[in-house]
Specification:
This protein is of the alpha/beta class and 227 residues long. Helix content is 33%, strand content 19%.
Length: 227
């Protein structure tokens, strides 16, 4: 069930996670746990050794170095905007620190550049606010944190905000609701890209009771967004 010393994969993708002061830890680390654990999946869950993909997981901030989370502990950003590698997939977490960044030109410019080349851009919680402020969500369906829905959607007047959704998959852009929803979104994206057996393996190996229905969203009701 778990390969401690996995074989070298024939191909590799790079998953980048944006960090900023005040990022929400689970927004970033929940999805990172899933992406980072893929290397331990036995070949049969990939559908054969030849289908195995190596995942390079990197962290990126405005400048490389320590970045404090909203909860306090710091994470070291491997790269800054200027020297970040080419990304196949980008994850944008949310957190209190995302609020001032909707007006940060350097961050928004970097996000626009990444969205032009990345295969999939993902957001968790009010990380969608950053994508919206950058214009990446214009004309697209998207969702975000339900407990702070009004403020989180304010930067995106041209976005088709979905009030009740655990996550919204619009192909090259996938957004999720608050905090823990990022793990459900990540498992859904991995299932789409690499197969349901691999997603099921990740949920089992992390002992995570994943929600598989993107419309499951009791928090939208609790927040008064829908009845």
């Amino acid at each position: 069930m778990y390969e401690v010393r996995p074989a070298q994969a024939a191909s590799q993708v790079t998953v980048g996670v944006l960090l900023f002061p005040g990022f929400e830890m689970l927004d970033a680390y929940g999805p990172m746990e899933m992406w980072g654990s893929l290397k331990h999946a036995p070949a049969r869950f990939w559908g054969g050794e030849e289908k195995r993909v190596g995942v390079r997981l990197v962290t990126i901030a405005a400048t490389r170095g320590e970045v404090p989370s909203n909860q306090g502990p710091k994470t070291v950003a491997d790269y800054g905007y200027a020297d970040a590698p080419k990304l196949d997939y980008l994850l944008v977490p949310g957190g209190i620190g995302a609020v001032p960044l909707v007006r940060d030109a350097a961050t928004l410019d970097w996000l626009r550049a990444q969205a032009r080349t990345a295969k999939v851009v993902m957001s968790v919680c009010n990380g969608a606010s950053l994508l919206a402020a950058a214009g990446i969500l214009d004309g697209r369906p998207a969702t975000t944190n339900k407990m702070a829905f009004a403020s989180s959607t304010a930067p995106g007047p041209k976005v088709h905000w979905v009030k009740q959704a655990r996550w919204v998959d619009d192909g090259t852009v996938v957004s999720s609701s608050g905090v823990s929803a990022g793990m459900d979104m990540t498992l859904a994206v991995i299932a789409r890209l690499y197969g349901q057996p691999l997603s099921e393996w990740l949920a089992q190996i992390t002992e995570y009771d994943a929600h598989r229905d993107p419309a499951w969203d009791p928090f939208a009701v609790k927040a008064g967004l829908v009845r």
